[in-house]
Amino acid sequence: MIVQSLLLSNESYTHAKWEYKDIAVGFSRLYYIISGEAYYEEEGRSYPFKVGYLYLTPVKKSFSLYENPESKLLHTYAHIITVPSVDHFTEIPVKENTPLGDAVTLWRKYAKSENEEFLKSVISLLLSCSEKEITQENIAARIAKAHIDQKDDYLFNMRSLSAVVGYSREHITRSFLATYGMTPKQYFNLKRMNAALERLTAGVKVGDVAEELCYASPYSFSKAFKNHFGLSPQNYLHTLHSEQVPSSTAPKP
């Protein structure tokens, strides 16, 4: 990804009553958060801006931005047009002594420079480092998902998953959430529920399903099933021929 046009670059606190409501613009907003409290909203979801993180907003997609006036946002920011264009909201932690951390430091140093071509090259470098960070995030998520998919039992432990994948529990969870829209635990539970449904529809008794899937008791299995599908196992089976039966969706590989 390269910067085709640089519309604005600066580092400062936001202006008074900083708020943008349901806007869609033809450029991306790049933010590095230094301090303060602010939020990004898109499609009904709200994301708090975190100190030490880099954010990139999509082009021509309706979103809102606002801050807590009691904790004004101090940030380095740029309005840019990139090739290819940004099509989704991106959040990336910036760590010191990494290529991305060094690129952010360089951008902050020259954020107010009047040398537009130099600034474009600095921000392009930063975006290149960001893409590498995102790739690493995806690698952790995909390794974790492959391990969960290959498990021949229905026991889940984040510590064991961390040891197998080779990343910290926090990194795996963040990576999995960014890649698949759910945590590893949620994905495991989804697979477990789908396995339960397959067994129930094949005629396996509730007690046997609970035992096969490593639930503490038939009661705990029935409770988990109802929390997931909205119906008890028995009621769900009675409505199998109805078009209103809820279903679950697993992330694609």
Secondary-structure-based class equals alpha+beta
Count of discrete domains: 2
> What's the CATH first level of the largest domain?
Mainly Beta
Taking the alpha carbons of the first and last residues, their distance comes to 24 Å
Average pLDDT value?
88
The name CATH uses for the topology of the largest domain is: Jelly Rolls
Count of strand segments: 9
Biggest sheet overview: 5 strands, antiparallel
Strand coverage percent: 15-25%
H/E topology pattern: EEEEEEEEEHHHHHHHH
Classify the helix fraction into a percent range. Answer: 40-55%
Morphology call: elongated
Instruction: Point out poorly predicted stretches.
Output: none
The number of helical runs is 8
Strand order of the largest sheet: 1-8-3-6-9
CA radius of gyration is 23 Å
User: What's the architecture of the largest domain, going by CATH?
Assistant: Sandwich
Quick structural summary:
This protein is an alpha+beta fold and 253 residues long. 43% of the residues lie in helices and 23% in strands.
Task: Describe it.
This protein is α+β, with helices and mostly antiparallel strands. It has 2 domains: 2-136, Jelly Rolls; 151-253, Orthogonal Bundle (Arc Repressor Mutant, subunit A). 43% of the residues lie in helices and 23% in strands. It contains 8 helices and 9 strands. It has helices at 99-110, 116-150, 158-165, 169-180, 184-201, 206-212, 218-229, 233-238, and strands spanning 2-13, 19-23, 28-35, 38-42, 45-48, 53-56, 63-67, 74-83, 90-93. The strands form 2 sheets. Strands 1-8-3-6-9 form a 5-stranded antiparallel β-sheet. A hairpin with a 2-residue loop joins β4 and β5 (45-48). α1 runs antiparallel to α2 (116-150), α2 (116-150) packs parallel to α5 and α6 packs across α7 (218-229). The longest helix has 35 residues, at 116-150. The model has no long low-confidence stretch (mean pLDDT 88).
